[in-house]
Design goal:
binds zinc ion; mainly beta; 0% helix; 5 strands; globular; three-stranded antiparallel beta sheet
Length: 59
């Protein structure tokens, strides 16, 4: 599960892995996870070892 914030829905939500549309490896060990929220909006979450901000968390 991914904890994401959808700017269009203006709310945070937990999305299951099947909402993942793609993974993109960025520089420095950062991974951009592309998801769609329950309304079908596109949401990008940054994760991976190279990122140092609290959340988003994988559950
Ligand atoms: Zn949304």
């Amino acid at each position: 599960m991914f904890l994401v914030y959808c700017a269009e829905c203006e709310e945070r939500m937990l999305l299951p892995v099947r909402h993942v549309q793609g993974l993109h490896n960025l520089a420095g060990g950062v991974i951009a996870v592309e998801l769609t929220c329950y309304e079908g909006h596109r949401v990008i979450v940054l994760t991976g070892s190279g990122i140092d901000i609290p959340g988003p968390a994988t559950v």
